Amino acid sequence: MSRYFSGKYASLTPYVPGEQPKNREYIKLNTNENPYPPSAKAIEYASKAAKSLELYSDPDCLLLHKAIADNLGVKASQVMATNGSDEILNFAFMAFCDKETPAVFADITYGFYPVFSEINNLPFRTIPLKNDFTIDITDYYNAGGTVFIANPNAPSALALSVSEIEEIIKHNPDNIVVIDEAYVDFGTESCVKLINKYDNLLVTRTFSKSGSMAGARLGYGIACESLILDLFTVKYSTNPYNINSMTMAAGIGALEDWNYSEENCRKIIETREFVKKELSALGFEFTDSVTNFIFAKHNSISGEDFYSKMKENGILIRYFDKERIKDYNRITIGTLEQMKEFISVAKAITEGKI
Predict the structure, then answer these.
(1) Residue 23 has pLDDT above 90, yes or no
(2) How far is CA 83 from the centre of its chain?
(3) What pLDDT score does 19 carry?
(4) In this structure, which of 51, 163, 193, 277 has its CB flanked by the most CB atoms within 10 Å?
(5) How many degrees, rounded to 5, is the angle at CA 144 between CA 140 and CA 150?
(6) What is the pLDDT of residue 1?
């Protein structure tokens, strides 16, 4: 750090993104990217938008908001698009947390939540997951702060039902509940239908996973109009032109061709179930994933060693050194061909051949 770096960030521990290697080619199963390319219509629309980059993008995102709203069956006034779902989450920390209203989230969950708390100088409280990595919903009743729940959770790959989420919302009538649905399209039900019933619910989504647009950086939030207006106040006080024209156009194209993305999700789910069976036969233990990744461990090899041997053999997976999960690795579901190669290397590792 330089001597000019503000002391208010002296203890800040930044979020650590997954490896993006540049020194060799890997089968990349470490950052939960979709292995399939984006919709051809998304690419076409982005290419057309590139011809007008001398102009600012629409700060109100009117066409994109309408496309998202039509896709979800909500009003455009109930939607706000952002630069990835990370931005809408950060806006929520800024808008709905303060010194009297801490952030509340699980101890094992998306690693950006504590970072958003710290960089915004906000108090936060973590609630331990149960030993099987599930959430006890009663732990979140009357939480006394803004609740953030990734559903499905990462890296545990598990989800709460809509009825369980609704109980948490009911038991926090004076605080916002934020449901982060980055992985919802891979096997669980969305809570979007609850936004007209509860004025303290914010649902966040992303195009990165199911939409094959991680590189475009496009996310959004869905809530009642009053919460969306709160978030717009934060947006217009930070970066009004937060989404570039090409990304906005790509999002509209992807939504117009959403059947393509749904088919890719179906293929990923099928491949995930194949990988579960193969890993089980090799003696791995894992949670019952409803995401585009598997959270797995093997009793004969440490999580760190398994990660290292995979990397040595050209396959990247995600290892976390946090005490409760250091025996596990998070394995993104790639194409069937990629996952067959992963299983082959995993078999060789567990048999001590490499």
Answers:
(1) no
(2) 13
(3) 86
(4) 193
(5) 45
(6) 81
Q: How far apart are CA 323 and CA 175, in angstroms?
A: 31
pLDDT number for residue 305: 98
Chain-centre distance for alpha carbon 79: 18
Q: How many residues does the chain have?
A: 354
Domains of the chain: 18-36+259-350 (3.90.1150.10), 40-256 (3.40.640.10)
- Judged against a pLDDT cut of 80, whether residue 24 lies above it is answered with no
Res. 253: pLDDT tops 80: yes
